[in-house]
Amino acid sequence: MGTTRGFAEDELRRLAGSRSFERGLSYLSSVSALEIEESAITATVDGTDAYEVELTEHEDGLTGWCSCPYGQEGNFCKHCVAVGLTVLRQAESVPVQRAAAASRGRQLNAWLESRTRDELLSLVREHLAGDRDLRRRLELRAATAGGDPGAVRERVLGLLDTRPFARYGYVEYADAHAYGQQAAEAVSALRTLTETGRAADAVELAREAIAALGRTYGEIDDSDGLIGDVATGLAEVHLDACREARPDPAHTAEWLVGHLLGDLNDATGIALTDYEEVLGEAGLARAHELVVAAWRANPKGWTEKYLMEELTKSEGSVDALIAVHAADLSPTGATHLVIAQELERAGRPAEALEWAERGLRECDPALGPDSRLVDLVCERYARAGRPADVIAVRRDVLVRRRSLTAYQELRTAAGAADCWDEPARADALDLLRADARPRRSLGHQGSALVDALLDDADHDAAWEAAAEGHADGRQWLTLADRVRDRRPSDALTVYLRLIGPLLTRTGDATYEQLTELLLSARACHRILGTQDAFTTYMTTLRSGQKRKRNLLAMLDRHGL
Questions:
Q1: SS percent in the chain: helix, strand, coil, step 5
Q2: pTM exceeds 0.85, yes or no
Q3: Does residue 349 have a cis bond before it (omega within 30 degrees)?
Q4: Taking each helix axis from N to C terminus, what angle separates 226-245 and 173-195, rounded to the nearest 10 degrees?
Q5: What does the pLDDT look like over 22-61, one tens digit per residue?
Q6: Distance between CA 232 and CA 214 in Å, rounded?
Q7: What letter does residue 2 receive in the DSSP assignment?
Q8: Quick one: pLDDT band at residue 106, thresholds 50, 70, 90?
Q9: d(CA 399, CA 495)
Q10: SS3 471
Q11: What whole-number distance in Å separates Cα of residue 167 and Cα of residue 182?
């Protein structure tokens, strides 16, 4: 099967999932009215109803829309798959169809250009009579061109009103596309204001529009990102209008900081640094004053802290940036790490190490230290020729966090310093052993002690620790697999113990796991020379599981 310019069969399967993809195969004969344009593909698919499908090719991939209930929830449905596969099956003709679509477009343009003014007016009026949306858009353009600020404001805010599209106070996915197309007209209208010499009006109206959309953005299913594009467009229009109109810098700074500190910026993504040219020295000074005041009032606030970070970065003050971070230190040491990295970038490595070491000392043992902070300190110690300090840090981490990873990192550090001898290993294992508690069943989480012994390939010691009750099912299985050739009888006991609970469950995943264990048990019997005992065991097992047809089929495929 071929590919089109923008997608292939694998992408259809990925977007839809295996189940919808397979179902889509049965709808290939139900696709009709297929039209292939430059970047869009439309068709009708007959199912429970006649569903409209639209596939759109973007630079970053394919998206699909369908009028069926499943598609209206934002899913790439079986009808989208059917249309996509239909296009792929005629991939050789796609360029011809796209060329034909382009030709039709040129033909239409030529025809329109050949009409007289009166003929075009008659055509437009004819469509206005039957298309309410077109009438509203043209009314907005007329108001914009006519210089009536009140009328423009009313229509722009009306375009952003979600109430006509909201069901129970929420714009669902099925209606978000139509709302997004309408809201995009508001962006165009504001841009026209700026382009026609009314940038100052555009500034004020853009701020109202941003606030209006921000208040309702959380009540819209924007799975396709169309409303987000509108919000970004409003932000861009506002900035362009400010560049043209040059509004009062202090007033602009007050609006900008107020907007950024509010709850409405998630949609627009406006950044303070984007306005440096517009604000100038006076506006930036006012913005600095407002941000600092907000941060001092709430130094732990995420937005306040973020704005202070952005402000101090733009001003190039490392010490001021550190002060911002230091006012709200994370108990994990993550903030100490950020400070250390900033100091290193500023060429102050000694201070950076001091902050990193402080993070190790001050972090909450229950939450930290952040592994990246530990890595930074150890790397700096190693670079300075301080292997004993690296080992000390790694051991301290193992004391705080009894895990396989901490054990491995200590082993690596001590090994690099040629200090990983038996006493050092025994000391580390004793730390893990002190934290190990007997597991009452195979379902409980195993201990890091068993994992460490397995990682050291010390299988006999690992078996001993497991036998003391420190292993879970996963660890027992790993142990059995590792010692099967040397200790087949012990391994067989483990496999049979793990098989037991699975016999009461159903599902292909369970059957696959059960089959793997039975194959391992058979291998043990072969080593022991007791194949007849395994045959008897399997006869009894199959008899007890005879209603599980999928399981029996799987066992048959593996000769069990």
A1: 70, 5, 25
A2: no
A3: no
A4: 10
A5: 989 989 988 998 888 877 889 999 877 788 999 988 777 8
A6: 11
A7: -
A8: confident
A9: 34
A10: coil
A11: 17
